[in-house]
């Protein structure tokens, strides 16, 4: 009887699965027993080829070869992980292997990792899919008991493949086109560009903001205070003219006051929902100062290594009904520090269930992030792991606590004025049932929603018994002068929120409804998008904020609205979700991507925007790498700057002073399409020293501006010409 090969995504996960399957025999890149072989990728082993691996003509970036629109983009083995790929390929194609199990991360990217390996290895053997949300032994065992046929996830793979190829087509074509147009290395992406647009928009709002002075007036009625307001102002407590505020304050001092109305309403504040990845990243940034990328890495460690959290790369904040017993077990297994809080979440030993926490219809590939049933000791965690685990554990408990109940009182007090009466508003709040607020927050609790008023930061306090007609006297009046403030710079939390809710700003209400939950990127990719913008120099971290750089602003200035707006990206994310569910045709989606890639190339080619990109040093470093790898061609001075030496690189000849700005470049294949020879070091020596070289196929001539090739029997009009200072 043959064996089953299990392919995990990472070695650590592979070892956990191997332990559960009792695979104790070590092999090269695998663990095994008589029935099972567990091996692993190391992230991606296989990826899409580069354009120049499709065709030699794409080695040189030029508009003549754009757009690049292959019907199929071949796969290649990633060089750095070639050895492990060979191990996996041999195992899955071995004669004694009957079946495979895909045990990569249970999501779109994990599916792609396995399927690309499967396709590149030309494997045809049947495979099953292990789908788990926790790395505990119990969860792995249950996953194998409920294993599904791999065909069930074909839609997920097709969606992942479309995402991968769409990013390739848009990124390769747009990056080359705009780089060629503006003579600076530019990175353009289907997801990163609209994310950058959000940062650029915020930077412009801040730079264009003009502060306006205003004042507020507070009246002291003895046992309570009130803030002046006017129904026709916006915000209604802001008095635009400072002198007017001072006049009001002077006018009301010592005047009698009468309560016009005092209304008390019992209100309920629901507990917070469970975490998905994006909401966890936002809270971890706000409360712990973690970047989105750091939160994901720490959560992944708590999932994979510590077995303390469920699968973190989820976009759901809900649990399925069959998780109810497990949540009860999890609460009872929490570390001792949390046990005093458990009874509030388990009244009478039962879990209070509502649609805010348990809803099968809102569970996607994975449920919300919660602690696992495994007993853990947070003291053995790193400090970052301990803090993030604490955040998730407290959120799980708080989510099942009772609602907070309070009495909200709104008092309107009237004071007579010279021309018209003045009205003052007082907001009161008395907590009746603290409910989920009994779960102490980690640090600096976020203000309750009930405390946030559209009219400003009016404090809510306990008030004396008040009713309409009560009389008071204005003991004093205070004027506070201030200025309107610009929007705050983005941080990880606010940028993640903007990416997640990008579709909500669309004017098309139907499209906005369809795009709900399909903003820019996915929970699993948003952190990487933010880090990518920083890496390529389009954004920079300043303390806790993220700010678009000058280069980022310039890039958005030359981008068409179609790629800078979240609408197109949101449409694509929606389409990818529909491909997963079989509601969208994958081929039609890819055809739309090809058309869009063509549009971007044409837009770049015809764009007349007069934009000069700032020198951020990246181009110089990029050029220096090529100069460092070049070999000096003996006896050849640069024909352009007359100072540098001619260097031979893998694909061209260039000046040793290229990093200082010399534009001399001779591509080795610049004459081949006209029937001429490929340039060699010896041929370049002859051409530059003699200006005319005659050969078996024709004549090469050169001056200080261009190199020309005349095939035998041709006239000047048919000569192949190439500039010797072509832009790289």
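Sequence proposed for the structure above (728 residues):
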């Amino acid at each position: 009887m043959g064996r089953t090969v299990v392919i995990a995504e990472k070695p650590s996960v592979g070892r956990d699965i191997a332990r559960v399957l009792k695979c104790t025999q070590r092999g090269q890149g695998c663990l095994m027993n008589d029935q099972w072989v567990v091996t692993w990728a190391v992230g991606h082993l296989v990826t899409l080829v580069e354009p120049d691996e499709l065709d030699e003509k794409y080695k040189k970036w030029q508009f003549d070869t754009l757009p690049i629109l292959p019907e199929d983009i071949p796969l290649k083995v990633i060089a750095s992980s070639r050895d492990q790929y060979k191990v996996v390929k041999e195992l899955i194609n071995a004669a004694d292997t009957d079946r495979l199990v895909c045990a990569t991360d249970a999501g779109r990217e994990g599916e792609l990792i396995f399927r690309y390996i499967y396709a590149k290895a030309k494997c045809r053997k049947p495979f099953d899919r292990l789908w788990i949300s926790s790395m505990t032994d119990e969860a792995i065992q249950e996953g194998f008991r409920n294993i599904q046929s791999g065909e069930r996830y074909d839609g997920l793979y097709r969606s992942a493949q479309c995402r991968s190829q769409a990013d390739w087509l848009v990124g390769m074509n747009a990056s080359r086109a705009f780089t060629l147009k503006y003579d600076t290395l530019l990175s353009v992406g289907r997801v990163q560009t609209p994310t950058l647009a959000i940062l650029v928009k915020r930077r412009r709002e801040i730079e264009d903001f003009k502060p306006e002075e205003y004042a507020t007036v507070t009246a002291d009625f003895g046992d309570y205070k009130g803030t002046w307001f006017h129904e026709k102002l916006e915000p209604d407590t802001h008095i635009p003219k400072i002198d007017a505020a001072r006049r009001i304050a002077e006018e009301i001092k010592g005047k009698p006051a009468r309560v016009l109305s005092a209304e008390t309403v019992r209100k309920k504040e629901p507990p917070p929902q469970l975490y998905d990845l994006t909401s966890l990243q936002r809270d971890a940034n706000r409360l712990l100062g973690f970047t989105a990328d750091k939160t994901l890495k720490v959560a992944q460690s708590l999932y994979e290594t510590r077995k303390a959290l469920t699968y973190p790369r989820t976009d759901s904040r809900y649990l399925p009904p069959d998780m109810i017993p497990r949540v009860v077990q999890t609460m009872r297994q929490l570390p001792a520090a949390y046990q005093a809080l458990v009874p509030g979440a388990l009244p009478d030993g039962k879990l209070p269930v509502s649609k805010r926490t348990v809803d099968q219809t809102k569970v996607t590939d994975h449920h919300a992030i919660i602690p696992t049933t495994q007993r853990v000791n947070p003291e053995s965690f790193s400090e970052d792991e301990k803090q993030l685990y604490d955040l998730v554990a407290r959120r799980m408990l708080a989510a099942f606590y009772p609602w907070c109940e309070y009495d909200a009182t709104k008092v309107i007090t009237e004071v007579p004025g010279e021309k018209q009466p003045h009205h003052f508003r007082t907001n009161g709040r008395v907590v009746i049932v603290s409910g989920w607020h009994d779960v102490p927050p980690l640090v600096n609790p976020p203000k309750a929603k009930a405390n946030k008023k559209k009219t400003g930061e009016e404090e809510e306090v306990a008030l004396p018994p008040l009713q309409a007609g009560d009389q008071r006297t204005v003991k004093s009046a205070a004027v506070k002068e201030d200025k309107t403030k610009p929007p705050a710079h983005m941080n990880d939390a606010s940028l993640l929120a903007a990416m997640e809710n990008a579709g909500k700003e669309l004017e098309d209400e139907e499209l906005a409804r369809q795009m709900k939950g399909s903003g820019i990127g996915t929970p699993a990719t948003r952190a990487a998008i933010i880090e990518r913008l920083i890496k390529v120099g389009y954004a920079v971290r300043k303390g806790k904020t993220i700010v678009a750089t000058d280069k980022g602003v310039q890039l958005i200035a030359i981008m068409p609205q179609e790629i800078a707006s979240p609408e197109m990206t949101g449409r694509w994310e929606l389409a990818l979700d529909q491909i997963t569910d079989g509601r969208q045709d994958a081929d039609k989606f890819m055809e739309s991507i090809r058309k869009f890639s063509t549009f971007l190339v044409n837009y770049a080619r015809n764009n007349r925007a007069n934009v000069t990109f700032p020198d951020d040093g990246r181009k110089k470093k990029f050029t220096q790498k090529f100069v460092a790898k070049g070999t000096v061609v003996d006896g050849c001075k640069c024909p352009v700057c007359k100072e540098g030496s001619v260097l031979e690189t893998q694909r061209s000849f260039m000046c040793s002073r290229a990093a200082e700005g010399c534009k001399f470049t001779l591509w080795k294949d610049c004459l081949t399409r006209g029937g001429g020879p490929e340039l060699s070091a010896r041929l370049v020596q002859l051409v530059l020293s003699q200006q005319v070289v005659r050969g078996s196929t024709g004549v090469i001539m050169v001056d200080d501006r261009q190199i020309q090739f005349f095939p035998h029997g041709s006239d000047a009009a048919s000569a192949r010409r190439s500039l010797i200072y072509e832009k790289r």
